[in-house]
Amino acid sequence: MAANAYEKLRRLLATSQLRPHEHLRISELAERLSVGITPLREALIRLAAEGLVTLHPKRGFFVKGLTTEELAELYVFANYLLRSSLWWGTARMGAVGLASDLAVGLQDARSEQAAVAAAKAVELLNERIVGLSGSTEMLRAIRGYNDRTSVARLIYVEQVERVESTSDYVRTMIDLLQADDRPTIAARLQQRFEAKMLQVPRLVKEVASRAFSSHWSYEMAPPCVPLGRHETAIEAAQAQGAFNSR
To answer: Are residues 146 and 220 in the same domain?
Structure first.
């Protein structure tokens, strides 16, 4: 099925297991992923629309390389999206659902996959903040951002922020969301955004270096709280009682 092919291919791209600018030969990739050629082609078209691969007419599909300009633009976009959701969102997020969701990931942050777990906790935190907007389109946008910056995020956690500091950041944000302290949340988001912007050239260089390293491979864990194929983070939070009217 196309959905299965899409998820498998998206995982390879998100974990940098396909090299930047690599030509994606459909027959070889279909065999590697154990999917049909037609579903794979549909998945590639969808990923091209999402900006994860590039389609060159008469040449085929290629892995999109991350540039300093693109990463900087993605960081600016996400910062705007998060802060807009925070200020204009009509929901108030209770701490119960969020804290229990992220606690699973932060427990994993003590394992050998610590950096991966901490990076995933940040991704889920991003989703939940954008969930305040009540917009599924904005949620889809932040998930696309999470996918396109996943390896850069992992490197940032490993080499710049460090796992313990990332975990502390997530826990602090949980407390602030519980208190509905939006000014302080906005200030923390801006502070982290500015720190990441300073590291853009270094992160892009390291992403490229790891992608071309024969020993670079890791398995990005699934989100702390698995969501159904058609379930949004907004619906999940509502089901857990995590949203209350302001």
So the answer is: yes
